[in-house]
Design a protein that fits this description.
Strand order of the largest sheet: 2-1-5-6-7
Helix content: 25-40%
Number of strands: 7
Strand content: 15-25%
Number of helices: 6
Structural class: alpha/beta
CATH architecture: 3-Layer(aba) Sandwich
Number of domains: 1
Length: 167
């Protein structure tokens, strides 16, 4: 899918205040999630009690291919874990971040270097300057929203790739 930014993100490019960030609209969020198949999850914990683990496991159960990104783990959710985005040796559609806000600037720089096109920063994680930097580098970005909640609630759990594929 071609990178199509929302009107809000296009307007953000022209805004003078570096701390302003506006998430894409509902239609853009659902369209992006519907076409996303492979998700690299930065900060995916091997601990089943952690939100990152629970949400990634739920997405995996719904048929998403989850790539764990965690420097201290070899495997998470039965899948090879990578120490960094740059180490992933296969394509992915979206990066989902479960790291503290003070780590976002570095993660966004890593996304820029890796050529990431879509970035989802989880609920409760906010760094407007980092999100704006991502958008300025043509990375479609969502911040401070839960991917699982939006996939199931806002978007009714629908994907383009599940139809007729037994997922």
């Amino acid at each position: 899918m071609a990178n199509r930014e929302s009107t809000e993100q296009a307007g953000l490019r022209r805004h003078a205040d570096a701390n302003v960030f506006v998430n894409p609209d509902t239609k853009a969020i659902c369209s992006t999630l519907a076409s996303t198949r492979v998700i690299a999850v930065v900060g995916l914990s091997p601990d089943p009690s952690r939100p990152s683990h629970r949400i990634a496991a739920a997405m995996q159960r719904r048929g998403f291919d989850v790539i764990p990104v965690h420097p201290g783990a070899a495997r998470i959710l039965g899948v090879r874990a990578y120490p960094a985005l740059a180490e992933i040796d296969r394509p992915y559609d979206l990066v989902n971040v479960f790291r503290r806000a003070d780590a976002l600037e570095g993660i966004v720089r890593e996304c820029i270097r890796a050529g990431v096109r879509r970035l989802w920063i989880q609920d409760g994680i906010v760094d407007r300057r980092a999100a704006r930097t991502a958008v300025e580098h043509d990375i479609w970005t969502v911040m401070d929203r839960c991917i699982w909640r939006d996939f199931n609630g806002l978007c009714n759990g629908s994907t383009n790739w599940q139809e007729g594929h037994g997922h």
